[in-house]
Amino acid sequence: MKDDLIIAGRSFSSRFIMGSGKFDPELIKACVEAGGAQIITLALRRANSKGGEFLKYIPKDVALLANTSGAKTAEQALQIALLARELGCGEMIKVELIGESKYLLPDNHESIKACELLAKNGFAPLVYMLPDLVAARAMVDAGAAAIMPLAAPIGSNLGLANKNLIEILIREINLPIIVDAGIGRPSEACAAMEMGCAAVMLNTAIATSGDVALMAGAFGKAIKAGREAYLARFGRVLENSGEASSPLSGFLE
Prior knowledge:
Layout: E1 5-7, E2 10-12, E3 16-18, H1 25-35, E4 39-43, H2 44-47, E5 63-67, H3 74-86, E6 92-95, E7 98-100, E8 105-106, H4 108-120, E9 124-129, H5 133-142, E10 146-149, H6 163-172, E11 178-180, H7 186-195, E12 199-202, H8 204-207, H9 212-232
Helix pairs in contact: 1-9, 3-4, 4-5, 7-9
């Protein structure tokens, strides 16, 4: 059964999106191969380092998703997106506007403005956000291509701390909901996919593990398993009784 992730008209067979911010660039290729990621995020300042040498470590068949890391305003986000377009990163852009420095929380209000500005300039914004339904609806109206709620503060590995709020977005928003930030373990990525998330983005949980390629492979399997469980639909739950899985009568009578 074909079950591709569709974002802004582009099709991806993998639902594993990998960040690259904390990686030794020489490990990226191994992680992509082990985890099966087909999209990798890219901070533009890193792409520009050493004359763009970083880009040679990204496999050619992997889509680059530039982010607006470092921008504080919608206008700055557009400037970064235009530079990314010149570098050949395409129209998909991850809107990342941090409004609070201690916990690195995104600024939903400014992100809505950025989304509108980017969409007007031909970009497909994937918006990193605090999981809030009102803000997500405004992002959809502003032209978002995907909504990326944080599961927990970025880089924390705290897991699905915002599980209930993300479930509301999955039910109410008719765009891919991609969990971004906070996932620390493959079991948590699997749980996010079982909930109905369209994809999971990972960086710190892999980059800070003892074996990054092995951990990338574990996350790749967990994301796939969670998606398959979601598609299969779960069996019913009996809260107040049990039910035998085999007949209890007609034997030894």
